[in-house]
Write a structure and sequence with these properties.
Domain Putative restriction endonuclease: 50-188
GO molecular function: endonuclease activity
Order of helices and strands: HHEEHEEEEHEEHHEEEEEH
Distance between the termini: 33 Å
Structural class: alpha+beta
CATH class: Alpha Beta
Number of helices: 7
CATH architecture: Alpha-Beta Complex
Strand order of the largest sheet: 3-6-8-9-10-11
Protein name: Uma2 family endonuclease
Pfam family, one: Uma2
Keywords: Endonuclease, Hydrolase, Nuclease
Radius of gyration: 19 Å
Number of domains: 1
């Protein structure tokens, strides 16, 4: 809530400053030209990317990610397996992995995990490569991504009304669960113990430890 308030205050201040200068139209024209140039770079980005790298387009910049650490990869597979088994069994929609490129208004992200409700998933084609805003996203922190996961991505996911956002921390073995209320994310849970229950994926509830431990993960699969 504090992050959103600061963003609104900053936006209002920028608008106020622009409106107080006599050449406001010229300023807006310059901004539009810059956005048009950025869009050209974005289209080139779409043409140049390959499936070998994890890359994102954020505020005009191409971000190439480093190879994932072992603990990051294990968390991805544990949680992804739980999500995929449950969603497929219940016929609830589609779970996507880190190579699903989510195209928002300005930026393109490859979340670690994402989920689309059935009504949205049913409109997708088998050869689709750009995806709309999911209903649920998981990002697994790493030293190189933590600032973006908590910063620009948090704000962008919130602005595009992605209803639920989990941030998984491999170092502290904690999960932060955010749920959208109105226009703002609210922190529902930050814990390394107990269960976590999704607001978006009906009936999906797992022990947090199952995200970080192989034996507990197998137990959770059996109990789904």
């Amino acid at each position: 809530m504090e992050t959103l308030q600061l963003t609104k205050e900053m936006s209002n201040r920028i608008v106020s400053e622009i409106m107080n200068v006599p050449d406001a139209y010229l300023v807006l024209d310059a901004v539009q030209k810059a956005l048009d140039e950025e869009q050209k770079r974005r289209l080139k980005f779409y043409n140049d990317i390959t499936g070998e790298q994890k890359v994102e387009f954020i505020n005009g910049e191409i971000i190439v990610h480093s190879p994932a650490q072992k603990q990051h990869g294990r968390i991805f597979f544990r949680l992804g397996h739980l999500l995929d088994i449950y969603v497929n069994r219940e016929g609830l929609g589609l779970v996507g992995g880190e190579k699903y490129m989510v195209a928002l208004t300005r930026n393109d992200y490859e979340p670690d995990l994402c989920y689309f409700r059935k009504e949205k998933a049913d409109k997708m084609t088998d050869k689709q490569v750009l995806f709309p805003a999911p209903d649920f996203i998981v990002e697994i922190l790493s030293p190189s991504t933590a600032a973006r996961d908590r910063g620009v991505k948090f704000r962008d996911y919130q602005a595009h009304r992605i209803e639920e956002y989990w941030i998984v921390d491999p170092e502290s073995h904690t999960v932060e669960q955010y749920h959208l209320f109105g226009d703002e994310y609210q922190l529902i849970l930050k814990s390394a113990v107990g269960d976590i229950k999704s607001f978006v994926i009906d009936g999906f509830q797992i022990p947090i430890v199952a995200i970080f431990d192989d034996a507990e993960n197998l137990k959770a699969i059996q109990n789904l």
